Structures are given as C-alpha cells and as structure tokens.
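Hi V.,

You were right to ask for the full record rather than a summary. Here it is.
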Amino acid sequence: MSIVVPSDLQPIIRKAITSGRGTDELDVVRQALRLYAHVEERRESLRCAIAKGVQSGDSISGEAVFRELEQLAERLAAQAEDGAP
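Predicted structure:
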C-alpha cells in the first residue's frame, strides 16, 4: 500500500524523527496507526461498558458519558504528543 501524507502533517512526522521518537517516516506512521488501534479498542471497550450499564438499569446522562469520552480523547491526544503509548 502506498499513501501520500498531507503537507500539513509532514512537519509532525519530521519532528518525530528529528526528536528521536521515530527512526523514519514508516516508523512514525506505524506508531500512529498503533495508537489509533489502541484508541479504537478503548472506544469499543467503552461502548461495551456503556451498553452493559444501560442493560443493568443503572444509568447516567448521555452528557456525562460524552464529557468522559472527551476527557479520555484529550488525555490520549496529550499522550500521543508526548510520545507515550
């Protein structure tokens, strides 16, 4: 598979390489895809937990759920910027 990285994302890749967080472009993209997969797994886990909670009869507002999801997304984004898995 061949991809073209948009020009606005290329500096992110170069910075990751020059800072030592990636050995080359492929390594940086590979890390990003692993992080994406991790986020998707976590999202699915949360969906399952929400469904289980709804089925249990105990419920919280949808607004509270989305607030928690936004906080999780912010933490994961901050970790990604810091280079943490």
